[in-house]
Every structure is written in structure tokens, then in C-alpha cells.
Design brief:
Number of helices: 15
CATH topology of the largest domain: Rossmann fold
Order of helices and strands: HHHHHHHHHHEHEHEHEEHH
CATH architecture of the largest domain: 3-Layer(aba) Sandwich
Structural class: alpha/beta
Largest sheet: 5 strands, parallel
Shape: globular
Number of domains: 2
CATH superfamily of the largest domain: Glucose-6-phosphate isomerase like protein, domain 1
Radius of gyration: 21 Å
Distance between the termini: 35 Å
Strand order of the largest sheet: 2-1-3-4-5
Helix content: 55-70%
Strand content: 5-15%
Length: 307
Amino acid sequence: MTKSDHFQADLEELDLVDSGQERTKLEEQIARRLHSFTPIQKRLAAYILRYPNDAAFVSGGEISREVGVSEAAVSRFIRAAGFRNMNELRNSLTHHIHKKTGMTSRMDNLLSTLQKEQRFFYEFIAGEIEYLHKATETISTDDIERSAELLHQSQMIYLTGMRASLPIREMLDYRLSRLGFRTVHLTDSERYILDKAQLIRKEDVVVGITFQRIPKDVRIVFDQAARQGTPTILITDMALVPKSLQADVILSATRGPQNVANTFTVPMAIASAIIWSLASKLGHEGHLRIEELASLRQRYGYEPTRG
């Protein structure tokens, strides 16, 4: 899917403002003016609604580079959207973020569903299956195979991801280590991430896991990888990845609306598929590595582990 396709997908999502769902003040404001927006202004509207966390903390110039328009176009959009200046837009974005992604809001929605659905467990499982099916529409077998091949050829695998992405990162680290691959966690503060990021080399691979936004630590690591010519893999739920963050393989699949407790089933399935593909490439070598680990455990009196 091209960047233009991603923008188009986001524009279609803007139709949700008329679906009867609870809207933020920013969504209401954009909905009232959407019919008068130019195509470029619609692209900018799609960007700030899709990535409010990024748009709220960057300059108009940075937004223009992400979307691929001029700074003047961003200024015109701000006025067309009903704001006097960038500061007013930032304030509106801040309120929008708190309302849409606040933990209290997400948990309230989930608890409300629990109270209403007598068959909640079955409905929940059906929803997870639906998201898994959707993942097959945005991620191909070739994407999984290419990711596995990059890992297979690597000297070192750098894993970066914080907060919600931690369970996926930890699972990848565990599985990769069992298969005999060397991994490095890039999860310190932004300042200390540089200490490890400077060690990234062309023969390595960087795997980033991030949801809903691209935090600065991930940007730093991917920028360093780009400077070294290091292959990168991104696991995300973002349909539109900022232009400044290019990856060799982008594995993007929805985890559900941003205002609910999002599923971990989909990204965990993506990571597991990569590991299985990698194990297949290793063949007999993979079995030998696991047997070597089992022997090491036995030598020091540990019970064999499963999984």
C-alpha cells in the first residue's frame, strides 16, 4: 500500500465523525468544515487525527514534511480548521489526546461492554478473530518471510519498544534467544539509548514495536539505523507511518478503535509468525540450538522448559 493509499484510508476513517460515536471537540470542529477542505487540507486533517500525539509536539514545518506539503499549506489548513495559530491547534490536540486515549476512557468502555454483554467471552473471542482476519488484508506472507530472512542474516538484533509494546518485545527476545540469536534491548531513556544505538552496524537488524504513535526513542533508533544502512522491521497498528520513519518491512494491522482497550492478540500473532518462519529457515540448525540450550540447563540442574 502506497503513502497515498494510506492517506485515502485515513480520509475514509474521517467519515466516522458522522457515525454517532462520541466525538471530541477537535473531531466536531473538523467534521463541520470537512466539506470545504481542499484535498491537501483533508490529508492534513487525516494526519493530525491519526497521529495526534506526534502532531501536538512538532512544528508546522515538521508536519509539512511528514505529510509532504508546504509549510504555507499547513498554515492555511490551521486557519481553515478554525484555529488562529499553531498554538491553538496544539491545545485542541492535547484535549483530544486526553479524551481519546486516556486509560480511564478505555477501561470505562470495556467495563460498559462487560455489563451489557451476557455472552461477553464469546463476543470477545469473535472480535479477536475478526482483527486477525483483518491483519491478513494488510500483511502478506511475503512480508513475514522477508522479516524472517532479515533476522536470519543478522549479526545482532536490536529490539526497541516501550509501554504497550513491551509484551511483544519480551516475547521476541525470549524466542530469538532460544533460537540462538543475540539481541539487544533499546529501552532506556532517550539519552542512554544513544549509548547502545551507536553500536548498530549494517550487518544487524532493528525491530521496532510501537502503537498509535512513534515515540522519540524509536525515531532515534531508526534514524541511526538509516545512517548505517541497517535493515529495519516495524510492527505497528498505524495505517500511516510518518515519512521520516522509513522501514524495510512495515507490518501494520489494526488493534481496534483507539478509544478502547486494544488487543494484543494481533501483534503477538505477527511476532509469532515471524519466529515460526525463522525457525523453518533454520531447519536442523534450529533444533541443534534448542538441544544445546536444554543440555546447558541440565548441566546446571534446571528443569527443561517448554514453549
